[in-house]
Automatic annotation (TrEMBL):
SUPFAM superfamilies: FAD/NAD(P)-binding domain. InterPro entries: FAD/NAD-bd_sf, FAD/NAD-binding_dom, NDH-2, NDH2-like_C. This is NADH:ubiquinone reductase (non-electrogenic). Its EC number is 1.6.5.9.
């Protein structure tokens, strides 16, 4: 028989991990579920994809994080559904009862129902996807060396769809590779035809940031040679040609999709709680509407407040703040004290476009350029979990800053095993 109330946390992203850490060594029994045995730092995935950081630099083993914990248990499994009546979850390793369930299972890439794009465009929402994209980028450069001139432009066109922080940062990183790295790696090949397109459906890049940051970030991109097309909708991609809504076409071997996310579905949550973007509607305590003892936090949670009538932005800062308050409310419940309602405290947003090029929006003012770039680096280093990873990333960034190079361009292909059939015995 259990003597402590059990909280099951589904997902070890920013929200789930923060909640588990804040409830560590309390009078709750915590089960943290995730499909991977590590937490992945999504803001720096584009640097893995462009061979600036190793995957291990932005991945943190969950069991290492909770080595000193007496009440947090890690389970690596896929959550298949929820039974809100009998209060248990179905997983790929069995059923688990809960007293409280917290859904923090996040979002996936949104292709807006286009199966052709889903099949052929590259996403970048996880470490394996970033590694896959890195291999594709590096292999493209190798292929370009031996490609006949009449087919070369198709090989050297990179199309990035979505000009939010991920798309902007990825476009800037690829542009710097073209300028600083490819001439040294391939002295016998002219990569001047390498063209990076950044396509955005809204009128601006970094549409959620200030007017000055939108303007400056676009100038930075265009100064690096990126072709920026705003108010541009992608209709299809057949593996060779990107078709735009206005009738234009771009031939490209590589299309990278960073145009939006949609909530991961989970069986058992009432339809009345599902909101736009497949997010789950919650109240100001992060309780899912029309359920009991089930909560949602992070990107999957849809909460409306007077300040955010269309829900909160899907940012790590929102996820962390929701998790921190929910942890405090769980602790208050143990002492029969009143809970507090959630209100997002916007501390600002930022994006980097390249070396000494970044934009930062704070609640009271904005700034751009070199100081913004150092601010971006400092904030992201502080958010990294372990001291070892902070040091590793800092050394890598410092080397890259002074050399305009990195040493991580290793093309690691998966092994395909050929098994010979056994000869029949005679």
């Amino acid at each position: 028989m259990r003597t402590k109330k059990r909280i099951i946390i589904a997902g070890a992203g920013f929200a789930g991990l923060t909640l588990a850490e804040d409830l560590e060594n309390t009078d709750y029994e915590i089960y943290l579920f995730d499909q991977n045995n590590y937490h992945q730092f999504q803001p720096l995935m584009y640097q893995v994809a462009t061979a600036r950081l190793e995957p291990a630099s932005i991945s943190f083993p969950l069991r290492k994080v909770f080595q000193g914990s007496k009440n947090v248990k890690i389970r690596i499994a896929e959550i298949l559904g929820v039974n809100p009546i009998e209060k248990y979850i179905d997983t790929s390793i069995g059923q688990f009862q809960y007293d409280y369930l917290v859904l923090a299972h996040g979002c996936k890439t949104n292709y807006f129902g286009n199966k052709e794009l889903e099949k052929r465009a590259f996403p970048m929402k996880s470490v394996p996807e970033s590694i896959q994209l890195r291999n594709r980028i590096l292999q493209t450069f190798e292929d370009a060396v031996t490609t006949p001139p009449d087919n070369l432009q198709y090989i050297l066109n990179f199309v990035i769809v979505g000009a939010g922080p991920t798309g902007v940062e990825l476009a800037g990183a690829l542009a710097e590779m073209k300028k600083n790295i490819l001439p040294k790696d391939y002295p016998d090949k002219d990569f001047s035809k390498l063209t990076i397109y950044l396509l955005e459906g809204s009128p601006h890049v970094l549409n959620a940031m200030s007017e000055e940051s939108k303007k400056v970030s676009r100038k930075y991109l265009e100064d690096l040679g990126v072709i920026v097309k705003t108010s541009t909708i992608v209709e299809n991609y057949d593996g060779h040609t990107v078709s735009l809504k206005d009738g234009q076409k771009i031939e490209a071997k590589n299309v990278i999709w960073a145009a939006g996310v949609i909530g991961n579905s989970i069986e058992g949550i009432p339809e009345t709680a599902i909101a736009r973007g497949n997010r789950i509607t919650v109240n100001r305590f992060n309780e899912i509407v029309d359920t009991q003892d089930i909560f949602a936090i992070g990107d999957i949670a849809y909460m409306t407040t007077p300040k955010y009538v269309n829900g909160h932005p899907q940012l790590a800062a929102v996820a962390n703040q929701q998790a921190q308050l929910l942890a405090k409310n769980f602790k208050a419940m143990l002492k029969n004290k009143p809970r507090k309602e959630y209100e997002y405290k916007d501390k600002g947003s930022m994006a980097t476009i390249g070396k000494r090029k970044a934009v930062v929006d704070l609640p009271s003012f904005s700034f751009q350029g070199r100081f913004a770039w150092f601010t971006w680096m400092f904030v992201h280093l502080m958010l990294i979990l372990s001291v070892k990873n902070k040091l590793s990333i800092f050394i890598t960034w410092a080397y890259s800053y002074f050399s305009n190079d990195s040493t991580l361009r290793v093309l690691i292909k998966p092994v395909t095993r050929k098994v010979k059939p056994l000869k029949e015995e005679r």
